[in-house]
Amino acid sequence: MNALTLNLLGELELIRDGQPLALPPSRKTRALLAYLALHTRALSREHLCELLWEMPDDPRGSLRWSLSKLRRLLDTPGRIRVRADRTGVALDTSDIDIDVVDLHGRLAADRMEATDIEALERAANRYRGPFLEGLELDRFADFHSWCLAERQAALRAQTSLLAALVERLMHAPERALDHAHTWVRVAPFDETARARLVRLLLTLHRPREAEQQLKLGVRLIREAGLPLNGQLLRAWHETRQAATIIPAGSTPAGLAIHPVGEPIPPEGDVLEVMRWAALLAPNPSPASLSQVSGLDTNRTGAALEVAERQGWLNIDAGMLRFTNSEMAVKLYAAISPARLPVMHRRVAEWLVETPVTDLDQAQALVHHALASGDPELAIRATIEAARFSLRICANAQAQNFAQQGLALAEGMLGTRRICLALELHDLLYRAAPLADWEAGVGEVVALAEQALEHGALAHARLGYQLASHIRWAHGQWSDAHEQTLQAERATRCGESRDQVIAMAETARCLAMLERDLNQAAELLEQACELATRQHIGHPAIPLAQGLLSLHADHFDKAECHFREARTLCKAMGDRLGEFQAQESLLLIDLERDDYAQARERCTQLQELGKRLRDGSEAPYADAAAALCAYALEDDSAPFGVALVTLRHADARHRLATLLLQAARLDLARARTETARQRAGEALEHARVLERRSEQLLAHALLAECTRRLGEEDAWRYHARAAQGLLQEPVAGWAMRRCHALLAQPAAEDEA
């Protein structure tokens, strides 16, 4: 086995002697590694700079930095793999096992036939996902194009390898089945792959699974707008005939037989109802057929009675099912191309009017809307499906729906495209953190500007507010502040509800940022007055009220507001808002030193954090729970471990909050040096974020630490810094803590 293994299929992975190596955090450095690995010749520095860097970034300096990281990773004493001179760069891969190179090497016809099945299976099992998954770098067109081309080539190679394996293992269907399932997963629209899977399932006497795969295959291929060549139906029909002995004179496939020996074909209302049933397969309900077919209840019921008597449909637990899946496929295929999208549109419109209650319904809505041929209806369906998915914390599904909608929106023009794209970006951000947040926020701001130009004020507000949240989460508080104000400006001439939301959201953001608090209070007062007159409710109002009350050190009022906000967010399905309301309630518990209540709150936050997107919420909840354990049980080890994960999540504001709370506990337990380290780290984060209240508390804690350690100069520095911040608009709770800490030396001297 080679000492180094480089896996490019799936997420990039580098393994030395069986142990994964920590890769550089820079996505461009990892992309450079993959690009060099698949080029056998030296590449010019100019080409690499143009490929991965922009002019303002000092491309040559960035390239040198990335190469230095790769040398530490790949070069070893006596073995230089990264070779670079003044003009070119190359990577010697002669002793590196690269999965995608191995995959392509298996495809030569002579090698495929000569290689034993076990070796082919090992090669197939190395495929962990698409080439360089998550590392497309779509802002860099040349690299992005290369990546997509390599991805398609790897996918074709993998499907060819799996097809060969399935063919060579047809004599051992149990062993071939796993490879057939994998083949279908990587090529879901390949009718040949699905037909092979259906044949194997029938051969193994698993007809129900085979029928499900048949229906799924037909639906997916039709959704993709691809033709069906009949392989699936032949696989189903021929394999069932071969596997089943039909006694002479028996009725095949559940169809009633006409006295002259021919099946009775459906016609009239029966045919119409069964066409709609085929469209809604696999499990339409009688009520849904009556709603979409246009026939009244009596005619629908009479048609279903005939269909059941003839053995075409049966009913189980209130749902209909075709007794012969071939009949459903043929009925669907017989619907004219002109009528089919009209029928799908009718179903989609009916589903839009019905509240979404499960993921199957959400997927059905998107399926029928896509098949309707109406892009806007299809995008609206993805938005509804994504919103429902977020409500039930199905974040991966929400992300998929939102990405599907954005792909559709690219083909639209005008104001509708801009508005729909902004709604989809909002959903995408709620579903998962942005891989490239700077590019993402730039796109959102550009869309918000376009919405403003087109007079779509509510959507302009949504875009600016989203950009503000993204920047806030990544510590760019000054830019977040400006885009918060821009969101409010955008809707000054808008509808009442839009104005209320904009003013309340702006007040909330200004309070979070501790900027322009008088303006925040004025905006909130206007929002409350307008909301009362218009009977408008929105969680941004109590969230803003709670933050301003908390800043004023009115904990009881703040607690009431945050409880109201949590309830409203829960009712609206806004899980991130619900988490933030709970997080604020936790801060109140910690400031009250009520660690038992805080621990209960942490349990709720942990449950919610597990269901939220992969952001800093779950690590924060775990770290807060560990802090409570430190307070109640004097065990600081779990908190130290949890901080590592929270630091990796890069949530400076949350990290600073918990570090300051931990430093207070350390001081109370005479662990002065630990308190100083934690308060010092919190101060760094607070300075980057320009958070005066956290800076004040950090300086006060450091003043007390240095006083106890007898470091007079350091004590004076931090005490003066704290006194200076006390003249600024800081939170009342931080001011109270600071006064208590700074008063300790004088009190002890007097004693």
From TrEMBL:
Keywords of the record: DNA-binding
Gene Ontology process terms (BP): phosphorelay signal transduction system; regulation of DNA-templated transcription
Alphabetical list of InterPro entries matching this protein: AfsR-DnrI-RedD_regulator, BTAD, OmpR/PhoB-type_DNA-bd, Sig_transdc_resp-reg_C-effctor, TPR-like_helical_dom_sf, WH-like_DNA-bd_sf
Bacterial transcriptional activator domain ranges (all copies): 96-240
Highest taxon listed in the record's lineage: Bacteria
The keyword Signal is annotated on this UniProt entry: no
GO molecular function: DNA binding
Domain named OmpR/PhoB-type: residues: 18-91
Protease among keywords: no
SUPFAM superfamilies (alphabetical): C-terminal effector domain of the bipartite response regulators, TPR-like
Family: Belongs to the AfsR/DnrI/RedD regulatory family.
Name of the protein in its database record: Bacterial transcriptional activator domain-containing protein
Organism for this UniProt entry: Billgrantia kenyensis
